[in-house]
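Contributing new complexes? Match this layout with flavin-adenine dinucleotide.
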Amino acid sequence: MEKHVIIIGSGLGGLTCGYILAKNGFKVTVLEKNSQIGGCLQTFTRKGVKFDTGMHYIGSMEKGQTLYNYFKYLSLLEDVKLSALDENSYDIISLDGTRYNYSIGATSFVEQLASHFPTEKQNLKNYRQQIKQIAESSPFYSFRAHTPRHLSPFLYLEQRAGDFIASMTSNTVLQNVLAGNSPLYAGVKHQTPLYIHALINDFFNNSAFRIVGGSDSIAVSLANSIRKMGGQVRTQAKVTKINCNDYDAVSVSLENGEIIPADSFISDIHPAKTVELIDSHLIRKSYRDRILNLENTISNFTVYLRFKPNTVSYLNSNFFHYAGESVWETAKWGDQFLYMHLCPTHHSGFAEGAVLIADMSFAEVAQWQCTTIGHRGEDYEQFKYRKAEQLLLQLEKQMPGTIPNIERYYTSTPLTYLDYTGTEAGANYGILKDACNLLQSTVSQSTKIPNLLLTGQSINHHGILGVIITAFLTAGALLGLDFVYEQLRDSF
Ligand SMILES: Cc1cc2nc3c(=O)[nH]c(=O)nc-3n(C[C@H](O)[C@H](O)[C@H](O)COP(=O)(O)OP(=O)(O)OC[C@H]3O[C@@H](n4cnc5c(N)ncnc54)[C@H](O)[C@@H]3O)c2cc1C
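Output block (do not edit by hand):
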């Protein structure tokens, strides 16, 4: 008889696990608290302009590259339309008044940066080579090992990205340039593991794309596939409790009072939120306390810009700005931001909208945490207005002429992310991975409840690639890790 698995949360992690398990004969039920599926893949539309909220660009999508292979396995290639970022400047690092372009491919990457730092060419070559080697130490990235147990990136998780970069070059400007896209991994100089820096940089340097028509296409495609394979993806189905007997989890309770039994359970929500759903002696106090006290990554404040039609030329690059000379430390809020145009739906050469993102800690909005969306009060609206205007002034200095072409803007804060994804403190990428405290900051996909597994960005890595890899590890705990690895490699 087919086994029934309940998946809590329809983020990328939950849907990917659902796809793998449905493909392998499980009866899958995905339960989502919101009316829209996808978690960070959610989008919203204002006056015909669709805004991504948590997935703006993806990498390694040329035929045969890592994410392309995963998309092929997950039947996503047909449904997700892509547009390549500028190969000479997929990322622009604007540092202390100078702009440095990252270009696609190891050779071009080195050449471009060496044009600013001619005496550093060999160091740049060494850096790029090492980044590739480190990324490929993961079997689920390179697919080179015969079994997933043969290669391990563990060594590089215990090294700090900041130390590694400093060991590659003594030029402090170049060190900062090489860390210039660290908002992609919420980089913290003395904590971020080298492996995360290497994986993300190699991933995007292989090829980089925006998603045409919105990142929700990924969630919709995965959910449709799950349904086609006999599974269910339910919205407005908030899980309020995971019910256990003396040995196992037996069912979940929903907010509407429904109780759904299953054989296995996977939680795609933040681990702290998962333990709050469990009132069982199977979860020991020490585990609960550890999970509840783990440090989270920073959250963000975003301004979503809708432009007047045909006024702002499309910028086919991601613009990482730092007013000062350091990427890791910022003196004043607003001096650092990430600016990205939405991929235009028409080939007019003009952008319809953009996102302007700056780090923001939850503490800044904690005073409004007991309020609900749309009813947070005038002082909250004023706070958002002040922050947006501050950020827009900084943007205008870098992209003169933008402000007059904004028709309307919308904002989100860490509270928005908390409400729409349920992630602790609205943290961008869930739990912070700390190279100096690796065991403490790492949460395994297994729990003390034998039939409850965890998945999602807090467990292994975040982002499109990290979360998909994690889903394979989680599904592998039910199906056998060697089996899913082999099935994946056979699908290429
Ligand atoms: C601002 C921002 C920009 C980003 N940009 C990129 C990018 O450009 N490229 C990239 O690769 N990655 C990016 N990421 C990271 C990426 O989006 C995430 O790592 C990934 O989507 C997280 O997926 P997840 O499944 O772990 O969790 P989530 O997306 O958080 O999904 C969790 C789901 O669980 C649901 N849920 C919570 N509680 C319950 C409950 N009790 N019952 C039922 N359902 C529940 C939530 O509503 C949500 O749908 C970005 C993230 C942010 C925040």
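Reviewers usually confirm one structural detail per submission. For this one: Residues 8-14, 31-34, 39-41, 54-58, 238-239, 268-269, 273, 300, 357, 421-423, 428-429, 456-457, 462-464, 467 surround flavin-adenine dinucleotide (CB under 6 Å).
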